Every structure is written in structure tokens, then in C-alpha cells.
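Hello again, I could really use a second opinion on something today. Take your time with it, there's no hurry, and the full record follows here:

___
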Amino acid sequence: MSGDAWLVVGLGNPGAQYEATRHNVGQLALDVLADRIGSRFSSHRTNARVAEGRTVPGGPKLILAKPNSFMNTSGGPVSSLVKYYGVDPDHLIVLHDELDLPFDSLRLKRGGGHGGHNGIRDIARALDTPDFSRVRIGIGRPPGQQSAADFVLKPFASVERQSLGVLLEDAADATEALVVDGLTAAQQRFHGRPAK
């Protein structure tokens, strides 16, 4: 695999009942990226569905992957993808939901803790390093007494769905900026501004 390849993983749970839930927002953003590179997801030997392509001719290659495992066991498929494609963790980007960010916001980071996100925790354990990039897509905290575990497995509220498409486009933009311009420039562009 050439050195310009990036593995971009969208986290979520498999199955139609989870597709439109908050926990699957990383995979929803990955669908936007797949549309941009004109590729479709297909089954792969790494227990994932994969789409490959470039955003522009001659640009960096993107390997988009949705693990077939449940969120909490994402590490196995991601580790297999990293080995299969020969991608170093510094060329791995994980898109995932983030309870600690308000809905309609994004943050990018490399390394650090998992912040209680079990998918990120499992990937860091499987790779034996936390030093990969993350696009954290804000879904906000549950209202009232609703548990976080129930909240993330529910579909977006109707008011959220009105701006969800823009948030997913922003997450795709942020991922492309991270690949092309680097982390610092992408952070300067996307941090602190609400989705359009």
C-alpha cells in the first residue's frame, strides 16, 4: 500500500435497527465520504465493509471501513484492517459519536484517552496504542434522567434531523481536511464553530 493511503473507520453497530441511531453517526458520515469518492461498500475479509477511492485524481487514497462487529468490539476488525492494508496508526482516522460535545459540533484530536467511549477503548487496546486520529461528532447528552446507553441507541430527534445532513457533511469535510492539510490546520478550521 502506498504511503498516501489513509484508513478511515466509521464506528457503529451492525443491523438495520441501528443504522439511523446516534451511536452510528460515524458510519453515517462515512456514507457521505463514500458518495464523494464514488465508491460503494462491499464485504471484506477483515470483518468489515470497505469502500476505496480518492477525493480527487492523484489525491490521497481513502480506505473507508465499517466494522461488522458491535461498537464495543471494534478493535478486532480495525486491527485486521490496519494489518491487511499496511497502514500505520498515524494514518488511521476514526469517526465516532461523542456525548461530551453538543449536537451539531465537531472536534478533532490525535491520541489521548478514550473518554469513556468503548469503541475507542477497544481500538486502542487492539492496536496497543491510542495514537490515531479521531473525528468526534457531537450528539449531546441525554435529556432528563434517560441513560446514556439508551440515548445513543435511539434515532435522532426530529429537530436534530433537520441539521443532521449538514453535520455529516461537516464531518466529511473535517476528515478530508485532516488528510490533506494535517491535524492542526483542520482543528483551526473546525473547532469552535457550529455546523452551518
